[in-house]
Each structure stands twice: as structure tokens, then as C-alpha cells.
Hints:
Blueprint: E1 5-8, H1 18-23, E2 31-36, H2 48-57, E3 62-67, H3 71-74, H4 76-80, E4 85-89, H5 96-105, E5 109-114, E6 132-136, H6 152-164, E7 170-174, H7 182-187, E8 192-195, H8 197-200, H9 205-217
Bound molecules: D-xylitol-5-phosphate and zinc ion (ZN).
Amino acid sequence: TGGIRINPSILAADFANIQTELSRIAASDFVHVDVMDNHFVPNLTFGPQMVERIQATSPVPLDVHLMIDDPDQWAPAYAELGAASVTFHLEAATEPIALARRLRAMGARAGIAVKPATAVETLFGMLDEVDQVLVMTVEPGFGGQSFMPEMMPKLRRLADEARRRGSAVWLQVDGGIGESTIAQAAEAGADTFVAGSAVFGAGDPDNAIAGLRMTAAR
Ligand code: DX5
Ligand code: ZN
């Protein structure tokens, strides 16, 4: 797939100073934007109106992670506002392939995410329909949780399948990624790393991004 991407999650940023926070992650590849609806996950963040403002002020493209029910209805709005990628959960989608095709047709990268309890084999048949797959390494809903190393065999099986198909799909991990966990995720086949607290909790976020990039590449 070529290259490593570090996508800071603004869930860990100071929402009252979002513009300043975004200016501190100019060294990242994408800013990861966690949309939660208090139904699919027990937490609530923001919707398209707020994401559109984040997009207007961000130095890097948006990687939107939808933790919401009925993405079939709501996901296209994020492609419409210009998000570079829109990832929805397999567990929440009614017609995942149709939705992925629709997002791609709108010019976004289509992503599909799986919660820790969801077998990754269920999306093997969809690998040609998406641009990225997100393997959650925590139960979605909150930042600052501990990385689940037991997700690594699943990630490895996905990476093997992608390789077998000659697929260019990006393999993303999200949850508990930091200096002490990123290497094992990279070793298991991830190439795109979401990090919230490890980046925004650091004194110098851009420096933390550079550090993660080096550790992942080693
Ligand atoms: C969790 C979110 C993550 C979260 C990661 O539901 O999807 O993106 O912000 O935060 P950290 O890196 O602190 O685990
Ligand atoms: Zn996320």
C-alpha cells in the first residue's frame, strides 16, 4: 500500500479552541473526525455542520469516522461537504456495498469499520468496494482507552487477504495507539494510524506525529 499515515483524532483536542488545535497537527496526513450519535455508541459529538467548519479550517484533509446508526442515510452528507474519506461501521449499515459505491461516486474514499467483536472475514467480500478498512483496537465511543492487542491476529488475517487479492486498500487502526503500541499494529499490517491522546496530549503534537511515524516505520 506504500507509506504510513498518522491521523490525529480531534476527539482528544480542546473543542473550544479547535482552530488552534488543528494548526498544531499540520505534520499529519489526515485529521480523524469522530462522529457519534449516542445510539450506535454511548457518546455524542457533532454532525455535518460542525464537520464542515472543521474542514474549512483544517490544514490537512478530513478522515471522517462515523459511529452512527443508519449510515446509509447520513454518510453521504460528509462526502458532500468534501471529506477526503468517510468510514462507516459494518455493524450499522443496511447496504454497505451500495453505500461504499455511493461515497466513491461522490469523490470520497470509502471506508468500512469493524468493532472488536466483529469478525473481519465478514468484509472480505467487500474489499474491492472500499478504499480503507478500520479495525477498531478499542470498543468505539471514547478516547483514552487501552489498546487491545488481541485484535492483532484479526488485522493480520485482513492484511493477508488484502495482499492475496493484490488490493491497495489502506488498513487503519484506531484506539489506544501510541509509542508503545504502534509498532505491533504496523507489524500486523496496519499502515494508517489514528491517535488521539498520544498526539493532542503531547506538549508538541507535530513532534509526537513525527515520533509515531518513525516508530511505525521501524
Ligand atoms: C474511539 C474513537 C477514536 C479515539 C481514539 O471511539 O474512534 O478515534 O478518538 O482515541 P485514543 O487514541 O486516545 O485511544
Ligand atoms: Zn475514530
